[in-house]
Amino acid sequence: MRHPARHGHVERVAAYAHEIALELGWKERLLEQLRFGATLHDIGKIIIREHTLFKPGSLDPQEWEAMRKHPLTGSEMVKNIPHLAPAMAIIRHHHERWDGQGYPDGLAGSQIPQGARIVAVADGFDTMTSPSLISLPWHCKKPWTSLRVAPEVSSIPRWWKPSCAPGTSPKSR
User: How many Å apart are CA 64 and CA 13, to the nearest integer?
Assistant: First the structure.
């Protein structure tokens, strides 16, 4: 991310996503695709003006339209790179929603690749627990409570309780 308040975001998202996938029993090949997808999930934001990215308050319709294009832009950027192409679905679909109201394709439920669902949960958790331009981070318990009621979490082990510092096993908590 280009703003100091977002420093370390992709690394934390990748770490949370890895933690979730390990608990789901993912094997090394899939974990590598997930790591690439989580690390590059917002690469398409490179085309978005900084004024839009860091605007306090609501985006206007044109800014929102530009922001909604970043998953498509990101997936296009990696599709012809052989070792990154398998992560394309994660990059493209990390803003889809279980109810079909997400973007860019309006996928719903199990149509959304599991890797993209995992990254969406990890991304949401990190966003809620990290300082932003307009608010202080929530304590870990509050966003986890919010995420547990989200349908996207249905494929995540119910006992997974992330720490604010990724990398510790949930089993050790």
Answer: 23
Predicted local confidence at residue 173, as pLDDT: 34
Q: Each residue of 82-132: pLDDT tens digit?
A: 999 999 999 999 999 888 888 999 998 889 999 999 999 899 888 877 766
Q: Do the Cβ atoms of 97 and 105 come closer than 8 Å? A: no
Burial 139-157 (b: 16+ CB within 10 A, else e): ebeebbeebeeeebbeebe
Query: In the CATH scheme, what is the homologous superfamily, with its name and number, of domain 4-161?
Result: Hypothetical protein af1432 (1.10.3210.10)
Q: What whole-number distance in Å separates Cα of residue 102 and Cα of residue 105? A: 7
Six-digit token pair at 137? 């981070």
Q: Per the structure block, which two tokens stand in for 146?
A: 């919010």
Backbone angles phi, psi at 73, to 5 degrees: -60, -45
Sketch the domain layout of the chain as residue ranges: 4-161
**Residues listed for the chain:** 173
Distance CA 52, CA 121 (A): 23
